[in-house]
Automatic annotation (TrEMBL):
Protein name (record): Four helix bundle protein
Pfam families: 23S_rRNA_IVP
Signal peptide as annotated in the record: none
InterPro entries to which the protein is assigned, alphabetical: 23S_rRNA-intervening_sequence, 23S_rRNA_IVS_sf
Length: 121
């Protein structure tokens, strides 16, 4: 089983490769830009969390990673809605949606467990 850091990195790489397949037009330019940022930022923030100076700092950086993953998930849903009829890799899109859902759940669980441990719950 891959560790979370590897999954987040692989997610960003697959995402960027997928974005290259979208038709070239004005709206996809915006989507490409936003998704490149959010999909890669999630992993970068989690990577930073690994060197956090405190539990609170770890939670903060992991929460940022979760927010970025949620944003990526939003953009994926938007792509699915507006790309109907375009020649896109639907199987890859669905994989990315599923992976972003799983990654959101993992990040949220890490945050909850860390907060619970911090408060002694």
């Amino acid at each position: 089983m891959k560790d979370l850091r590897s999954r987040l990195f692989d997610f960003a790489v697959r995402f960027i490769k997928f974005l290259r397949t979208l038709p070239v037009n004005t709206e996809n330019k915006v989507i490409r830009y936003q998704l490149t940022k959010s999909s890669s930022s999630s992993g970068a923030n989690y990577e930073e969390a690994q060197a956090a100076s405190s539990k609170a700092d770890f939670i903060f950086k992991t929460e940022l990673a979760l927010k970025e993953m949620r944003e990526s998930n939003y953009w994926l849903r938007l792509i699915e809605s507006i790309q109907e009829g375009n020649n896109i890799d639907v199987m890859e899109l669905h994989f990315l949606q599923s992976e972003s859902d799983e990654l959101k759940k993992i990040l949220a669980s890490i945050i909850k467990k860390t907060k619970d441990h911090l408060t002694g719950s």
